[in-house]
Amino acid sequence: MILWDTRSNITSNIVHAHDAKVNSLSFNPNREFILATASADESIALWDIRFLKSKLIALKYNNIEFFQVQWSPHYESVLASRAADNWLFVWDMNNYVPSIAEADEYRTELSFIYYGNEFNISDFSWNDNELWTFCSVAKDNILRVWQNTQ
């Protein structure tokens, strides 16, 4: 991952972000220095772009590759991700507990798993106007709107 300072057109940081290609990134719209990356190395990483020497948090789930990540427009601690096997995940970093984060079977920060698409999900997006609402579109050309009651 390379960050440039556009004011001086100089490379400001070069970071080995993941062990495989980065598939997606998303800046947190509610916290200007926080960045999430999704990778083929089966992880999501959270970064503070002011201190890129190490990840803030690394998220994994059952050795699944993550293709897309996007922060919630409404909650600074919530992000969603699209993974292999047609799954959408919603994570809440307010529930992150480092001491048990390595145990995939009990992820405190994993709020919801959506598995409703029969084919590979092509894209998803949060709704900017409705809380806890996002949509997904799959290779079968079906658009699904998801709304959680939380």
TrEMBL record:
Any keyword Repeat? yes
Q: Where are the WD repeats?
A: 15-50
SMART domains (alphabetical): WD40 (SM00320)
Q: Which UniProt keywords apply?
A: Repeat, WD repeat
One Pfam family assigned to this protein is WD40
**Record's PROSITE patterns?**
WD_REPEATS_1, WD_REPEATS_2, WD_REPEATS_REGION
Q: Which residues form the signal peptide?
A: none
Q: Which InterPro entries match?
A: WD40/YVTN_repeat-like_dom_sf, WD40_repeat_CS, WD40_repeat_dom_sf, WD40_rpt, WD_repeat_RBAP46/RBAP48/MSI1
User: Looking at the keywords, is Repeat present?
Assistant: yes
Family designation: Belongs to the WD repeat RBAP46/RBAP48/MSI1 family.
Q: Supply the PANTHER family for this chain.
A: WD40 REPEAT FAMILY
Q: What is this protein called?
A: Peroxin-7
